[in-house]
Specification:
The structure is a homohexamer of 133-residue chains.
Chain A: H1 4-15, E1 20-27, E2 33-40, H2 46-56, E3 61-64, E4 68-71, E5 73-81, E6 84-93, E7 96-102, H3 104-114, H4 118-132
Antiparallel strand pairs in A: 1-2, 5-6, 6-7
């Protein structure tokens, strides 16, 4: 498949409701390098997803199996920073916070607009979150 | 495992009836680079496949799970080209054609015999198929 | 490095004039999975590129070497199609055409707007180009 | 995730009883390079394993599914060699030996202490095993 | 090559003075999965390194080329934390600090001894460093 | 590029005199999965190799650099085995043997004809070689 197709299909699958789309490298029959397209979605979306894959990609077969997915519960809070308000994503396992991090797109925007290295913006946000705790 | 073993085992698994055989790279315990051997086969072939893997490879364990595979229905047709007759593989999803492409081995043979770049032969075949539609 | 940083840095490097930016997977010291950032640029851009990498990424060292790059000469032509005018990129080796393909972004736009599978739009364009020859 | 975390988490998971832990490379949303952490464990360990992953790593979701694992039965025997006693791991499929190899850590120790290339030590052990048969 | 050999050889190369050792996956002749061993060292070490590779691995050929390596200048400072003194690695580009991070092995030790998630220890250290600035 | 093209091109490059041809996975611009084609050849073959790559593949650019390649000197000897004569490839570094292994294609042929697992044939040959020393 033309590599230019990948992000097009990926985007289309996300729009159709896929929970996740990712690619991985394999070595196929006769030693040909190949790429597997992996899509995670709710059971009721399976038919729509399948049709997109068969219609848009060049694959001849799709393998499907069900699995259980466990996700952390999330909460979005806003904190004040020297760059203005920023959204923090908090994640909880059985009610206990196990992770907190700033929304990347907001850090990215700040970095671009202020001309500050992205890692400096990100680390600053992380230090505020850590202090909060 | 000696890398020279891979294509030997792959070939042996296909001969035994495997529907697909492919390899993927992983990072194992203690950061050792590893290769997983993946085989897809009908349930009734599982025992034969398992014996080949255990006997021919150096693996100590095989993980097995069932999944549902959906494949496009296919039809092979022949078209006339300036290089002679060529087989075209048509694929259908619910009766609607979603893909059509020339048999690669026939394109390859033409490219070799006529001294024409493979992509030129392939694109020419694709243009004939597209015109047909 | 936070994976969210990759496309940010990649974009920044392209904006600064990098000819190409790509990533590859490696297994680092102690078996840690790592990613190498590879940048190709003109010699006179090396300092700017180096500063971006050191400032924006978490790397501690950059390896540099010169190489010769040979590229095909290109020409862009426009053809009329049932979907309107489309740009075709022709590539030449010593004056002889070795490749011709439609601009992907234009195909993508047509596919989205008309609701046609991307591979159908692409193959149609390829067949027009091939007929031209 | 900081690459330095990988071997820490891997070690922690093995200590908690995981049967296997490995990593593989993927291409995530927006073309970001990613690493999947794969853990194989008995069903009754799932909760402990899950908590370690959510607490120690930066993942937001874990996918789980059951599979059947077939392993060769093993037996450890000791043989006398010019370097002292060495443990040999014999593997059996339905009572028939399909593999025999020296414990790597013992070969490694001999190679280090005697200043002999590891492959020479290993091949020597393999030749003793093969002669035994 | 037996995957168990990789970390043995890697360790041996680092002991001999290699600046970096890493592995990457390739697809070799006849589609066989392969691993390249990459070693970076000072020119005067080349002969020692080469001998280790040829003696310990199963390779038949080594490719060598010189390149220029640019590294950040580093400074190690100690800060007081609620877990005791911790070393911080500061990196500078043309005299300007572009990165600062805690020594991972010290964080790891604290995490293990106190039973705190590694990412919590690490983020706490990062917040102290950031506050310092 | 159509994955079916890879082994065709690889074969063509070997026929033209390439010393080695291999592929590796990268993540290209916009996160597209890509494959690099790597060819190693003598300087005087560069033009022929370049023309094949530009003509047969879909690449638009080739990067070239010179490097020094060090290879072990080799000698082929024949030994008598219970399966008949087999060729052994001996490799030497500064006159000292550092490796010896049986020709894989001969082992493969024996394994196929006698119905013996490939690793058993291979290990048997290795044990004979080791005894020889």
């Amino acid at each position: 498949m033309n590599p230019e197709f990948y992000d097009y299909i990926s985007e289309k699958l996300f729009k159709a409701g896929a929970a996740d789309v990712y690619f991985s490298d394999i070595i196929m029959k006769k030693g040909r390098p190949g790429i597997t397209l992996n899509v995670i979605c709710e059971t009721e979306l399976a038919d729509v997803i399948k049709e997109i894959i068969f219609t848009e990609s060049t694959t001849l077969g799709i393998r499907m199996f069900r699995f259980h997915k466990e996700t952390l519960s999330r909460e979005f809070k806003t904190i004040s920073t020297i760059y203005g308000d920023v959204t923090i994503k908090h994640s909880y396992l059985n009610g206990k916070e196990v992770s907190a991090k700033p929304e990347f797109d907001e850090c990215r925007k700040i970095a671009s607009e202020k001309g500050i290295p992205i890692k400096e913006v990100y680390n600053y946000m992380m230090s505020l979150i850590t202090k909060f705790k």
